[in-house]
Amino acid sequence: MGEEYYLELTENPVQFENASSVNNVFFDEANKQVFAVRSGGATGVVVKGPDDKSSVAFRMEDKGEVKCIKFSLGNKILAVQRNLKSVDFITFIPDFPHLEFSHECKTKNASVLGFCWTNWNEIVFVTDQGIEFYQVQADLGYLPHHQSINVNWYIYCPEPAVLLLSTTVQGNVLQPFAFKNGTMSKMPKFEIELPMVPKPAKLNLSERDIAVATIYGQLYVVYLKHHSRTTNSSGAEVVLYHLPREGSCKKTHVLKLNTTGKFALNVVDNLVVVHHQSSQTSIIFDIKLKEPDCAVNVHQPVLPARSIHPYKIPLTGPTAAASQASVPCELYSSTWSVFQPDIIISASEGYLWYLQVKLQPTVNLLQDKGKLMEFLLRRRDCKMVILSVCSQMLVGGDDKGNLPVVATVFDKLNRVYKEYLEAEQAYSVVIHFQSVCFSFWLVCQLF
């Protein structure tokens, strides 16, 4: 059974002080940092990131309950929200004294839902009446960007710097904004198709059911669409809406979950991973495995549902006996929080893991060798697994001597190799052209 676990948690997680009555835990998706705030910061704030460079510890005055806390890029400015009207700032710029200042949102009678950093000194306040874009300095310079719009909730995706606002009474009309180099661009709004429309109208789309993720280099809004399992429905679905920088957002993929319940989503190595809490299993989807020329592609799971590989938490301190150096971690716990693209956090245990895909177990779980080869060729660190598949077909196994299967597999390998050679040749042509242009420029300079 151990060979069938195709998902696992990282062996060396980020560890932090677990959440308690005196310690609040926050996560910043942009910097991938966990904040452990003790007693409002008066007895310490410990920030743990993916590496030691992004980790820091400090104290700050307790001015009330912390609702949100995040560093700007590079840990240069700290922003702390303690109420619905303003955000406090503390500078951490090297070789400069610490400055502390506060700023209220400019929109009258608005409540600040949260904020997101778009650069080391640029921040967006999201209020229930719109967004306000600022350049942060001692006087909090106001950039000429302000949008008035009724907002239910928001999601920010840091890699493409895209902010998604939920609008309208039902919450299913989403308005995206893109940020780049101190500018804000309003993208075309779009509507999420709800399974049913409540009467009277009320908020029917939650931020828990929406994620923004990059898959195969394209930006998608990922919608977890719940259904009651009836004769007309096979269960919940994950609907992918392609969100281009220019043009309208369109529904392009539907992932069939074939069950109901509580779900959570990750994206790992361009695979959509869906976790199901009640069965304590996960399934994966590869949107590249699709029928050609379909406006909306419907997908079934690539592999059968399996649990994440069991994980043991090491015991430390005087309670750790030599006979019991670790205890099993409760997988799919109700206290888990899942963040994009591949992060799972247990605030109660004090761990942040990255989710990983193991390729070797997929070899025996995906019987169609042609489909298996397509799947493997799109994954990181796939070479040794592909070699083992080819060796198994040629030397031993059920497919030994099955020439049509062998031919299909090697056709796929040759196609990928051909694409690589063509890309390499095109790159060589560009380099040669640049070299000729540079030589011509040098000659012109001489004469």
From TrEMBL:
GO biological process: one example: regulation of autophagy
Record gene name: RMC1
Name the UniProt record assigns to this protein: Regulator of MON1-CCZ1 complex N-terminal domain-containing protein
Domain of life: Eukaryota
InterPro entries noted in UniProt: RMC1 (IPR040371), RMC1_N (IPR049040)
Occurrences of domain Regulator of MON1-CCZ1 complex N-terminal (ranges): 25-138
Cellular component aspect of the GO annotation: late endosome membrane; lysosomal membrane; Mon1-Ccz1 complex
